[in-house]
Protein 1
Amino acid sequence: MAWWGEVANVEIQRVAWSSDGMTSSTSCCFVGYELYLQITANRSGVLFNVANDGACRPAPSKRETALFVVPMRSATASCVKPGSMGMGYPGHLVKVIDEQGTECPVGVPGDVAVHRCDVHGDPDSVFFLGYWNNDAATAAKFTGDWCRTGDLAVRDADGYLWYQGRSDDVFKSAGYRIGPGEIENCLVKHAAVANVAVVPKPDSERGALVKAYVVIAPGFFEAHTHYSGAPAQRDAELALDLQAHVKGLLAPYEYPKEIEFVDALPMTTTGKVQRRVLRLREEQRARDRFSDGEGG
């Protein structure tokens, strides 16, 4: 059995986080990119009764267009690359572009965009006609003839796209552009992390600090007894270890300057972390600090 879209998100969560380690009869899942990154980084893995080269596939869920990026083999890559969004669907013109609408070099993040015309120069049938009674919003989706999807990605030398997050989740810290997805994907690979969300914390000097909300994996402290002392001391030691973990894998400016441990993250019904809820929380806390005379 194959699942698609939001139903797939629910099905794959059921398998990935089931307490009894059940094996699903699902043959293939196409899920949203964020959940795909969580699943592929999940240490317990996902068990499927399949004979192909991978049952879990990321797929775009844009409402303005039909499917235009799919996991596939390329002329220079012998197999589908796990964790990749895939490549532009044959017939469509898909690129990663910068703010001016120019294609980004290999390895440089930018917006995933689809040209309004297909490879034959005809209007591409994947596009919506426009937002209802909102011409300004429709025009804002385009830079020239390129429709920005709102997804950020980097392109590798084989033409595969690698998801970096949503453009509305990107923020700047001390002048550096921060994409939460890369930091979250790094943190969730640590044995202590069951789930994580990275958001900006308002700061008077840097504009924003990189902050991570972390859900600790069940049983982690019991299995790692070198974290001792009172809960506050134990959490502080783990926070330092998580910061060192990110520093060792990503750029120096990307590590979270602050880590807050929580029991759960705000989630949608389809398994996506609601970063907006956490951003608003940080903004409210900043306003409260300002009104109390604490500054940024």
Protein 2
Amino acid sequence: MSEAVIQIRDVSKRFGSHQVLEGISFDIPRGAVTNIMGPSGTGKSVLLKNIIGLLKPEEGSIWIDGQDLVQLSDRELYKVRMKMGVLFQDGALFGSMNLFDNIAFPMREHTKRTEKDIHDTVMEKADLVGLVAHLRKFPGEISGGMKKRAGLARALVLEPEIVLFDEPDSGLDPVRVAYLDDLILKTKAETNATFVVITHNIESTTRVADYMAILFRSRLAAFGSRPELFASDDPVVRQFLHGETHGPIGMDELADAEEEIERTLQQAQAEQAEREYALAGVGAAGAAGAAGMGPDVQSAAADEIPDPWAARDTQQVPVVVPPAASAPNPPVPPTPPQPPAPPW
């Protein structure tokens, strides 16, 4: 294995009481494609966010080119992030910008390049991903696969040393996944960058991955080269890579893990809102209600707030029923005149 560009050491991450990552350690080789895989709810995207620096682990360290991201200041972290490009699941394009401006955005935001330099770079990356003829289109006018390619072009404009993909094949049909895989290999060959891919797609992994890391139940189940893992006898690795129903990976626990992560994220957001409201002079009850807590918490919060309508609602208001109006008697029609008796 070549020199490591990213070193992950004993990384643990929690959301409230839920342990999402625990003791994760492995190296990502420079200039290779490393796929991070595993069942749903095992913390793959959370690990990616820790590598980017969007989240910080409670324990452990993440080293990139000799710098521990966990210990860096915001300014130092910003410099390290300039070495990275990220392709999000849906491309994360700005809907109000055409593709040219979307791809140019990082250069206009983070550099002092001239518009001519920006134009030349956009055309170069658009040509790499096959979008030169579509640069005037808006995201709402193109397919999902084209959005992915535009997102990749944008991720490459700052010439990153590391490119991170968060489930790039999500929502694509098998043919477009194959085209995307070819594009990833072509881009890696031309840029010599390090690619880190979060994916569930086994067939795609067989085409593009040099190395693989498999997560299970918050831990690292295995790491190694692609041939090593496909030949592995580990029960988790074998079941996942071959799509078997018999083994340690169960269906219910995956759904439970995803639900638990969602609950803990909501709880963390509610606690953060409570702290912010407390600093602003608003009571904990008001913060809990504003954070979208459950109905029991909201009703408890409401108990502490006086209701100006409560006194009126509890008063006994006499009900006056008006007497029924007597209807006038209908007029009696006059008796019609009797015809005269016949003479016979």
